[in-house]
Automatic annotation (TrEMBL):
CDD domains: PPAT. It comes from Microbacterium gallinarum. Its EC number is 2.7.7.3. InterPro entries: Cyt_trans-like (IPR004821), PPAT (IPR001980), Rossmann-like_a/b/a_fold (IPR014729). ATP binds at S11, F12, H19, G94, I95, R96, E104, H128, A129, L130, V131, S132, S133, S134. This is Phosphopantetheine adenylyltransferase.
Amino acid sequence: MNSRIAVVPGSFDPPTLGHLDVIRRAASLYDQLHVLVVHNPGKEAMLPIAQRLTLLEQSIAESDIDGDVVVASWSMGLLVDYATDVDAGVLVKGIRSQVDVAYETPMAIVNRHLAHVETVFLLPDPAHALVSSSLVRQVASLGGDVSPFVPAAVARFLDTGSRDL
Ligand code: PNS
């Protein structure tokens, strides 16, 4: 496993400015970064996986993020199976609060047991500390303006493209 290759996994339903901040920081730390959309069976989805991929690709393309960033999805099993397939030795997660630490720690330990993959926690800009996809979903579903919380590509889509969802 290559410790210079990392995966940023998540539901990204939808991608937020907090996600983009973590992706930007991780892209500057690793030689290759895989941004991986993973279906989370514990959450009711708003957007199809293919739409999340498109929004992530657009958001990254329109940002100042550079480097070797791959956007992909994974529904074939364990997250660490994808990491093993692409030779990634590191999983990167953004930590906004103690709640995130409590949620992420067991997964990090299980993933290390499963495949000797390390998890690195990054602290996003405090400006994004209160932003979550679930809040964005709720505000969007009730007709509110989510543009302060999401990349412009996501705001455009939620404004015009999500009426049939
Ligand atoms: O953005 P989320 O919903 O907090 O992301 C959670 C996710 C998708 C990263 C997590 O549910 C996950 O890793 N799922 C993959 C399934 C897996 O490998 N489970 C066992 C190790 S925890």
